[in-house]
Amino acid sequence: MSVLNPIALLFALLAIPIILLYLLRLQRREQTVSSTLLWQQVVLDREANTLWQRLRRNLLLVLQLLTLAFLVFALIRPYLNMPATLSGQLIVLLDGSASMQATDVSPSRFEAAKVQVRRLIDELGPNNEMTIVLVDGSPHALTGSTNSKSELNAALDAALPSLTPANWSAAIALAAATGGGDANTSATTVVVSDGANADDLRLITGNARYIPIGSSGENVAISTLSLRRTTRGMAAFVRVTNTGSSAERVLASLRADGVLLDARTLDVPAGQSTGWTVNGFDPQLTAVHATIDRATNNKLPLDDVAYAVNTNNATRRALLLTRGNRFLEQALSVLPNLQVTRAITPPVAGDLKPYDLYVLDGISMTLPPRANVMFIGAQSVFTTSGIFSNTAFVRAEPHPVLQSANFRNVNAVDVSRVNVPSWLKPVVESQGGPLLFAGEQTGENARFGRVVLIPFELRRSDLPLQIAFPILIVNSVEWLSPPQGLSIPTNVKPGEVVPLPQGTIVQLPSGNRVAVDQRGFALTNEVGVYRVQVNDTTSAFAVNFAHAAESQITPNPQLAVGGSAPVSEVKPQFSQREVWSWLALLALVLLVIEWWIYQRGVPVLQRQRRSS
Q1: Contact (Cβ atoms closer than 8 angstroms) between residue 323 and residue 494
Q2: Class level of CATH domain 221-301
Q3: Containing H/E element for 594?
Q4: Angle formed by the axes of helices 40-48 and 602-611, nearest 10°
Q5: What pLDDT is recorded for position 559?
Q6: d(C-alpha 569, C-alpha 571), whole Å
Q7: For burial by CB atoms within 10 Å, which of 239, 246, 343, 472 has the most?
Q8: In which band, very low, low, confident or very high, does the pLDDT at 608 lie, cut at 50, 70 and 90?
Q9: What is the pLDDT at residue 481?
Q10: Does residue 538 have a pLDDT over 80?
């Protein structure tokens, strides 16, 4: 303990006159009385006030000296060096990303981070305020700016980590809006994180501090799980990745609809991956899931499981209108679970059955609303403005219909310049003009659903002779008419919104059933298989954590936050916590006790005088 005003110790000299008042005899007028029997108290008082008498034990004297002592100590302003992280306004960015669920610190990094934040709350001074921001895929403030420790602790207790990576840029913007990140204010941004995948923290400006969490980066993860149909049935491919610094031996298993298909021990080198294929199981299964059942050093259990749904067991119906195209017919006929109806003339409107996909090879027809169509050649539904034959490749836009398809060597003649609506975008462009269009029309009054347009006849090109042709047909069919009958992805990231029709019933992996509202389905925070039911159609999709960056859980204690020097160890800081107010309060209490004894405790003083 130290003092700020040592000169105030001189006030301790006031103890001298207090003691002298108890030593000196009181000057009183003498009076003769007939008897002293009734005046024993007067005699005792005279004896007690004899000049320079021996100082006797007196409770009031002790209380007065103690009161003076506490007052003197209050005046010299003693203080204690108390641990205090920061002062002023604090904006705490609490990392709630998936990597914070690693268990290299007990019980998890996120819980250890909450302990650090709770320590900041405990050290919060009466004039300080704090805001806690949970940083995940969508950062949000858990509390407003407050100095209520109960409110801060309650919000912290309710905080949970997510399955998404941290959006640090959004968190920094939120902190700046709250008052942090400004060099002209007293606000300080405190980042509590493992520092993994957090390079954006260098963009913080103003006062900042980084509290690192985590000690080990050892982890193995299921990075890939895929299904495909083969001549021997279904096949599953599993890839296990080791993101740590030492080789791992893991026991992995694969189950289909809850039944064990295979289990295998895999040796995975550090920083590499090992693949595993299981062949020949039932093509009518609904879903498979792979798990890592045992590993030596595996600090993130979150990525030890992956799910995949089987979309190959749903039959789709396609109508092919063509005057004869062997390449096109063969490419469509080999696709699994695609039932193709071939016709030369359009069906009568009254006899038109609903189809999942329409392929119009140079023949036009009246289509039902929101039909998914592949147009080949010039069509009457679109106007044209001439033809071109200079089809030298220029560029291709990223699109699902072009996945693994190469149009660089495609040549065609008499390609139509089609005047397409704005929603139909060119995907492949040549020197003469676009060679491929794709797009989706939206809105309540949409005429089409998804559309793929090839503006030339296949017989007038070498496209059917290219390896790109069957790939293009497969990609187009899969994009135009998903195997599940709904335009939903089969593999969804946690937190991603799935575009499902309003009223769709979705069964969560936990077994609960919910109805989709008009905004789509957003309750994808649970890993597993989701089953979708629309009328009499049942489909499914899987939500997987599989995130390569978040599986890299190596902590970064050297991360520079806001351009400051890297912090490898959190050194405790101290503040001067003055205690004069407590001392002054104790002096007041003693003063009240002295007054009470003097007013109410005369018998006590009498007994003290007799005994002395």
Answers
A1: no
A2: mainly beta
A3: helix 580-600
A4: 70
A5: 82
A6: 6
A7: 472
A8: low
A9: 82
A10: no
Question: Which pair of tokens denotes residue 367?
Answer: 């289509």
Radius of gyration of the chain (CA): 41
Q: What's the start-to-end Cα distance of the chain, in Å?
A: 39
Query: pLDDT digits over 557-593, tens only?
Result: 888 786 555 444 444 455 556 677 788 888 888 888 8
Contact between 504 and 484 under an 8 Å Cβ cutoff? The reply is no
Average pLDDT (397-416) is: 90
Per mean pLDDT, which range of 15-19, 546-550, 559-563 is the poorest?
A: 559-563
31 CB-side CA count, 13 A: 10
Rounded to whole angstroms, what are the CA distances from 252 to 35, 266, 289?
111, 7, 11
Q: SS in 3 state form for 272-308?
A: CEEEEEEEEECCCCCEEEEEEEEECCCCCHHHCEEEE
560 φ/ψ angles, rounded to the nearest 5 degrees: -90, 120
Angle between helix axes 59-75 and 15-23 (nearest 10 degrees) is 170
Beta bridge pairs of residue 308: 288
Q: Does the pTM exceed 0.70?
A: no
Q: Identify the CATH assignment for 316-480 out of 3.40.50.880, 3.10.20.30, 3.30.1330.10, 3.40.50.360.
A: 3.40.50.880
Q: Classify the phi-psi angles of 197: left when phi > 0, otherwise alpha if psi is within -120 to 50, otherwise beta.
A: left
- Domain 85-215+555-572: top CATH class: alpha beta
d(CA 256, CA 253): 10
* Type of residue found at 82: M
What span, in angstroms and rounded, lies between the C-alpha atoms of 250 and 220? 8
Handedness of CA 521, 526, 527, 533 (dihedral sign): negative
Q: How far apart are CA 175 and CA 572, in angstroms?
A: 24
DSSP per residue, 170-223: HHHHHHHHHT-S-TTSS-EEEEEE--TT-GGGGG--SEEEEEE-------EEEE
Distance of alpha carbon 421 from alpha carbon 417, whole angstroms: 13
Span 42-46, average pLDDT: 55
**According to the model, what pLDDT value does residue 569 have?**
42
Closest CA to 200 of 172, 180, 174, 181: 172
How far apart are alpha carbons 402 and 383 in whole angstroms? 25
* Tokens coding 12: 């301790």
pLDDT value of residue 197: 81
pLDDT score of 380 more than 80: no
Query: How do the domains of the chain map onto residue ranges?
Result: 2-79+579-611, 85-215+555-572, 221-301, 316-480, 491-543
Long-range contact set of residues 259-266: C-beta below 8 Å, sequence gap at least 24:
261/236, 261/288, 263/293, 266/240
The neighbouring-strand residues paired with 387 are 416
Decide if 85-215+555-572 and 316-480 have a common fold.
Answer: yes
Q: What is the pLDDT of residue 57?
A: 66
Section 511-528 average pLDDT: 86
Element (H, E) at 551: helix 548-551
Q: What is the pLDDT of residue 372?
A: 92
Spatial distance between the Cα atoms of 552 and 270, rounded to a whole number of angstroms? 12
